[in-house]
Amino acid sequence: VRFGGRGNRTQSVLPTPILPYEFALRNGFDAFEWFSDKEQPGWCEDDMSPNERNEIRQQGAEADLLFSVHAPHTGDPTTPEGATAIFRSIRFAGDVGAKVVNLHLFPTHSSEKFADSLGRLLEATRPIGVRLTMENTPQTSPEDFNALFGVLTGVSEAVGWVGMCLDMGHANLFAGSRNDYVGFVYRLNVQVPIFHWHAHENWGDRDSHLTLFTGPAERDERGVRALSRRLLQRGVNGSVILEKWPHPPELLVKTRDRLHRLLESVRVE
């Protein structure tokens, strides 16, 4: 399991939009997620020149940094506009050497329609060694993922290349598992592969994206421990992205180190 931060929309208030990336390099993180989001001033792939992309690819290789790319959260692959945005993220992933492109699951579509829309994306990602992950939002249920991967298990091109990004904060807000993100995971069928983990907290009231161990887990980490145990039992071996740019940002280092210790203790239980 690799630990990383993310360049998210909070960058719009930062002196430079790649400050979180520079922080990750400087502090020895081994994963980083680029989040394409221009709803606020923010950042998107087109902001970065070919030379800058090459430099980041080289830096990532030298630091053994595992990159992922979060496509725009409105990027619906079943629509022409959404597919265009996701293809932009895929091209960026290939340029910087990222291994995962993450997008949201839109349960308003049938599982068959959504799965079919991924075929075009896989044609672009597989040749460059990039996997796709579908992230749960506060509106998506475990059963939505069970249905989608029930379809995808019959698509040979998708096996091993399409998985889930578990967002624990969103799972905590889903009406059917409010304040029980562990229960959300237990409802996922075994054929749902989890490749990626977005780690943040809330109090079950709103998507506040609290830094891990500053919400309910600050006082009681049993939920995070139970989630870690379950994910390890499922064979998850990807990156954990700390979805927050806190003040001070050094809090991310403490969070990473505490989560690392927790995972190591769970492994030897």
Task: Explain what you see.
The chain is of the alpha/beta class. The protein has ten helices and eight strands. It has helices spanning 19-26, 50-63, 80-96, 111-125, 142-152, 168-173, 181-186, 216-219, 222-233, 251-267, and strands spanning 2-7, 31-35, 66-70, 100-104, 131-135, 162-167, 194-199, 239-242. An eight-stranded parallel β-barrel has the order 1-2-3-4-5-6-7-8, surrounded by five helices. Strand 4 (100-104), helix 4 (111-125) and strand 5 (131-135) form a beta-alpha-beta unit. Helix 3 (80-96) runs parallel beside helix 4 and helix 4 (111-125) crosses helix 5. It is globular and about 45 Å long.
Give a summary of the structure in a few sentences:
The protein is α/β, with parallel strands linked by helices and 269 residues long. It contains ten helices and eight strands. The chain has an eight-stranded parallel beta barrel with strand order 1-2-3-4-5-6-7-8, surrounded by five helices.
List the helices and strands and how they pair.
Elements: E1 2-7, H1 19-26, E2 31-35, H2 50-63, E3 66-70, H3 80-96, E4 100-104, H4 111-125, E5 131-135, H5 142-152, E6 162-167, H6 168-173, H7 181-186, E7 194-199, H8 216-219, H9 222-233, E8 239-242, H10 251-267
Helix pairs in contact: 3-4, 4-5, 9-10
Q: Give the uncertain stretches in residue-range form.
A: 6-13
Q: How far apart, in Å, are the first and last alpha carbons? A: 17 Å
If you average the pLDDT, what whole number results?
92
The 3D shape can be described as globular
Beta fraction? 15-25%
Report the biggest beta sheet as strand number plus sense, adding barrel if it closes.
8 strands, parallel, barrel
Number of strands: 8
Q: In angstroms, what is the radius of gyration?
A: 17 Å
Helix content: 40-55%
| SSE class | alpha/beta
Order of secondary-structure elements: EHEHEHEHEHEHHEHHEH
Structure annotation, total helices: 10
Reading side by side through the largest sheet, how are the strands ordered? Answer: 1-2-3-4-5-6-7-8
